[in-house]
Amino acid sequence: MLFNSLNFALFLPAVFALYWFTGSKNMRLQNILLLVASYFFYAFWDYRFLFLLMFSTFLDYSTGIKISEAKTIRRKKFWLWLSIIVNLGFLGVFKYYNFFTDSFSHMLSHVGLKSNFGAIDVILPVGISFYTFHGLSYIIDIYKKRIEPTRDFIDYSVFVSFFPLLVAGPIERATHLLPQIQKKRKFDYSQATNGLRQILWGLFKKIVIADNCAEYANMIFNNYTHYAGSVLVMGAIFFAIQIYCDFSGYSDIALGTARLFGIELIRNFAFPYFSRDIAEFWRRWHISLSSWFRDYVYIPLGGSKGSKLNQVRNIFVIFIVSGLWHGANGTFIIWGALNALYFMPLLLLKRNRNNLEIVAQGKLLPGFTDLLKMGTTFALTVFAWIFFRAESVGLALNYIKGIFSRSILVVPKGEMFMGGSVNVAALVVLIVIFIVIEWLGREQQFAIANTAVNWPKPLRWAFYFTVAISIFYFTGVPQQFVYFQF
Predict the structure, then answer these.
(1) Cis omega (within 30 of 0) on the bond before 456?
(2) Cα gap 235→145, rounded to integer Å
(3) In the list 269, 360, 434, 452, which could disulfide-bond 460, CB 3.0-4.6 Å?
(4) Catalytic positions
């Protein structure tokens, strides 16, 4: 069930009404309603994978209790590793089996050996990477004695499968979400209206910006041999804008929807394209995943402590693992390695925590130095996105070769951009308007969190009405959310 579909537009009000009008005085009933709604939401994609979700939930719920009750470290480790191996085993079979067997067979062929590994034809269960990480963080935190296991299976099931975050995050922690599930929730008008504003902005980013950018990005990437280098640059920029607006748009809708039910999810994006270096970018992009890898992989490896060699190793491990998390393809590994290389100068010069504050905080415009740093960081990020978007390493390299040719100086012509639902000139104007709104709202939780709130009522409603009308007027060819494939 897509957030930008008619089905969800009917589903959400129905669940909202049942939740507040029949379960407002009974926390237990609220949680049961959320669980039933979440399972229905997930089964709407493919009911067969619902059983995988339920098994994963039961496994981590049970092993969490076993870890807590175990009397020896050896027993605790047994239950911890049982959960880790089973969870990662499912993830490995569905997501990585074909990639690793193909890679191994290819390696053997170079030394004259043949393998009998056969590919398996499986559908990747939507959201498996996300709910697997929910469960893993829960059992690891219990093992580390950061939390106590919950004995309420319904509460834990809601934590894992809460429908706004189920299929594409953010990746929640039990320390943050479970306490909210375990306490009574009362309807808060200001929280709900704030949620509606965030949903509205998320839909605008997804439908108006991301989906229309996707049409041109797909057109250019799929036919890159027919375009000049200058057009290929535009294609890469369109994809960079697409993936940000697509994924952060999803996150906005998820966070806004959760607020309608009195629940606050962790923030997943903080205006990453206004970053002044790669370290700041990764503190602002897909925050829930970056912090997950930091806490459960990077720090256990030693983090930024130890020798420089160990620090460099840890950075490459964290970025390459992040690349693999996104998909079983060499392109994602190179994308991760590129970001690690970008990070190296900051790490070695101890400048990776230089830009912790919001850029040009309290100012209308950035200074020249900040503008130059943002432009450089964006350019490096766009270059790396080429590998993320390309279907193979070879295609990515040929695309880059096409960019760095004499044709990069060719001025793009209008006929190069025929076929989009929105004229490319109109799309560029929409992108500029979007960037301005994001820039003006960069000190808020989301771009229009406080926009128009204190305006006179007619102006306030005119603003929201304009955003809503633009969503319908500039609707392009519907595109699946990019991160559903991960």
Answers:
(1) no
(2) 48
(3) 452
(4) 326
